[in-house]
NAD(P)-dependent oxidoreductase (Streptomyces qinzhouensis), 297 residues
Amino acid sequence: MNATASTSPSTSVSVIGLGNLGQALAGAFLAAGHPTTVWNRSAAKADALVARGAVRAATAAEAVAASDLVVVAVLDQDTARTVLESAAAALPGRTVVNLTTSTPEPARALADWATGHGADYLMGAVYAVPQTIGTDDAFILYSGSAGAHERYRAELNLLGGDTFVGSDPGLAAVHDVAILSGMYGLFSGFFQAVALGRSERIKAVDLTGHLNRWLQGVLAVLPEFAAEIDAESYETEASSLDMNATGLRNILTATESQGLSTELLAPLQRLLDDQVTKGHARHSLSRAVESLKPAVR
């Protein structure tokens, strides 16, 4: 991403945490001409950034005090909390953007603590590998203070495409858990496919070429499923639950006949069978999501 006309290079930024992500974040701000202060528990990690013009802070508190915009990218939320607690006296009037991986409740708890100590607060979920920070391949979802997001949107846009998903600080983490769940579900299907192929000496590389081609078309149905789920309207004349339940059962039978475990796909079979048993055999495959609803208390 490039700096926009509204970006002010005079905006000072502090980056706390200089792992691979923190290094990339600080580098993006430096490249755009922002005065950048950096801090890491292992001070030597700042050397390359200092050589590029960054200021090395001696403490986290010094880093927070140095800038109006403070970006945190550390190991986990407990570490983020510990670091920010050590700088509590410097927080009033600062905007903290926490890009540390989190789950929803810890994200909300730290937001409450930070705002209680006078900071404006944004939580962010990063979708990028460090080397893509600052490019069109990176994007970040933010939640928390709408005012902070608007005020520093140009600076945040230097890191990658940005989207504000709501004022609840936990929403970025909810999105993150949901999106990564989809990713790991894809991986589980891939591992099952490769294992089945290998059982007949089909190379994973060869199978993956065909799988990628098929999945490009399959992905196009997800927006249709999403619309059905949001509307809770599952009428269909196409990919019905009973058709897919039968198809998946055949796959599991074939998998077992190859001497392979079915533990990755068997849970999905249970969801499909549950909906068929409840009388929804002719409804869309997307209705399987209804079996994941929490029990009514």
